[in-house]
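Schema walk-through. Below, the input block comes first and the output block second. Nothing else is stored per chain. Lengths vary across the set, and this one has 295 residues.
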Amino acid sequence: MYISNIMTLHSIIRIPSYNLYGEMGDLPDVVHCEAIATRSVLHDWHIKPHRHSRLHQFFLVESGGGQYHIDGQNGTLDPPQILNIPARSVHGFTFIAGTQGWVVTVPLEILDQNIQSSLRQQINTPHISRPDSTLIGLFDEIAREHAERRFARAHILQSLTALVAGRVIRMIAEQGEGEDSKSGSPLVRRFENLLEQHFCDHWTIGDYANALAVSTTHLTRVTKQDTGLPASKVIEGRLIQEARRDLAYTSLTISEIAYRIGYSDPAYFTRVFTRVTGVTPTAFRTGLEGPRSRA
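--- output ---
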């Protein structure tokens, strides 16, 4: 079932953005996995509509159920069901008390490593359908691996998550669904395309606005309407995303990463990274590795 994005821009502005629901700190792991009940029971099984700017989520609802709200559409959860929730999709739930299942949360920089550009149309589509036994088994494996701190943990978690993403992409494609090419602001899409080309050049908002032939005020307003973040935060976030990717996937030093993404002063880069994520680059990398894993 395709869930179309019909939320108005006016209402999206008021939707809170979290890393994990109810938390504003940075995601503390390469992949996060928790039982649906873990967070839901703290909120009386009611998760208010919210979104995640840099996180993609996969829900597996195995028993119980309830009601969902995803990008302006409401419906009933009828387990077993798998839910694909792309970053920036507004979602909320009222679960039946005792609902069982898993939530797997993946930072975009981790997901991007495993998704070919030709498949992004599907993975960026909010989607609900019935999982097969293989997909259910993958969630169980992720839950077990996440709970332990064994050697190669990060590598295995990323690989299992890539398999979940692949299975979800296949389901979406086989049901003939894909992201609506008309959704979102065309200006923001153009801005994001330019950002991919120039984020390491540290273009200012004015540089992007001039290239897009709009005012900085208009670019900031439209970007915030579409993403929930002002243009300045989107620019900064793309730099931090690249830094997180290098910290997770390369052996570059902190200074080398800073220089690679355009910072002339590694100490200033460290201050920016710490302000945005809540942890230093060194602590972020250590957290990915875990106390006994060096994956």
